[in-house]
Task: structure prediction
Amino acid sequence: MSILVIAEHHNGQLAESTAHVVAAAQAIGGDIEILVAGESVAGVAESAAKLTGVSKVRVADDGVYAHQLAEPMAELIAGLASGYSHVLAAASTQGKNVLPRVAALKDVAAISEVLAVESPDTFLRPIYAGNAIATVQSSDALKVLTVRTTAFDAVEATGSAGVEAVTAEVDNTLSRFIGEELASSDRPELGSARVVVSGGRGMGNGENFKLLDGIADKLGAAIGASRAAVDAGFVPNDMQVGQTGKIVAPELYIAVGISGAIQHLAGMKDAKVIVAINKDEEAPIFQVADYGLVGDLFEVLPELESKL
Amino acid sequence: MKVLVAVKRVIDYNVKIRVKPDHSDVDLTNVKMAMNPFCEIAVEEAVRLKEKGVASEVVAVTIGPKAAQEQLRTALALGADRAIHVETDDKVESLTAAKLLKRVVDDEQPGLTILGKQSIDTDNNQTGQMLAALAGMGQGTFASEVQVEGDDVQVTREIDGGLQTVALKLPAVITTDLRLNEPRYAKLPDIMKAKKKPIDVKSPDDLGVAVASSLSVLKVESPAERQGGTKVASVDELVDKLKNEAKVIA
Result:
């Protein structure tokens, strides 16, 4: 078996997620190669070559792959895929954009958000926002998988794989890059933050979300919200944690004034530690919380901030 | 320009799911079903394009059992002009759905095809990308803004860490993310009117696509239950537990 891992990179830096995907490749077993595609990515390839367990790094360095648009990326990967039993990428917005397109070009199924490898053709993945786990088997000769990176511990950087250039004739007449607006907030991104502090309808209004800022600052946390808080217009819906919002799995999740509707629990119940602060001691959030504190959030939050 | 919008019948997002005792699947008997939330956003966007005069006709399509016509009626009540039902009782995987939709695209020749980015049952997030590949079109996935300009459509995409804008040559495929719009509710007179709008029923056979998949689901299980329920009495106790028991803060 031979596995191709698609490297993820931003601004000339190899993304941390790639080391997790290599770990998933190791769980499958076989020869592991990495594809680095982009423009001016020699540095990325160098970092990728150091990942433990990688035998070769293939580099497609060309303007057509700048910003890694799905159309040329998928054409490139589909063209290279015949030599491999598996193609893997992170289940990031990048991996999810490109890999299903690759799978369709190769006329094979794609398997999303792999949580565990049972055998080289059998994988566990979440369905219904993680409320059920499906074991799926693929009979395709080529398996195309996106990997949930939090489910695999990153490999170390102790290797020294060879790097070779890929030459492929790919052009792109379908799409053009126009621009990018990356969040410049000092806060980490909701989907990958180590700590998330979320507010619900109990916050009362959007202004009161400022009460979460100090705690988030001290913990280096991202700030989220329940659907109820979004629907009430307290905060924009890019902050929504839940089945139809962001699915998060931080080490610490602090739910403030959130009752714990199913739709919200689906988005955060894989957090390692859950803290709930709510004045209603019957709130369902307490059933999943490791530490529940019954109290008025307007008293608890300032006290918590001062004691952290 | 014609806009094709795909919708899927799924379990209502507020329903707590149960895994069948034999672990073959999730139990959907007597469970409330609804249009997938991301598909509602897709329908809304298509209807807004028509209201802006960009789209001339909105055609809704679904793949699924007879009952999925309820979701087509919802799309029609929200403003779609007519609908296509690819009727099958079989479980349809993403690649098969994309092949069926590709045949509908061949017949209808839409300028834009809009789908939800994923359905909240299988959570695959694949069909739009696969359809774009099979149709040889550009794809604007996870869209938070859509603007048709001449022969192009500009799509702002929600990516990890921010937003990316791409221009796609028409015809193109778009998949919706949460921020694209807020879907309206259907008004009663529109629900009545929708009953008279036409639904064209086809089978996968009519479209020349075999509903077979290379994927088999071996089992479906509930995730490990959380052992929650512990209460703390004060902020001091909470901070102490987080530091010394859970060790998640320093």
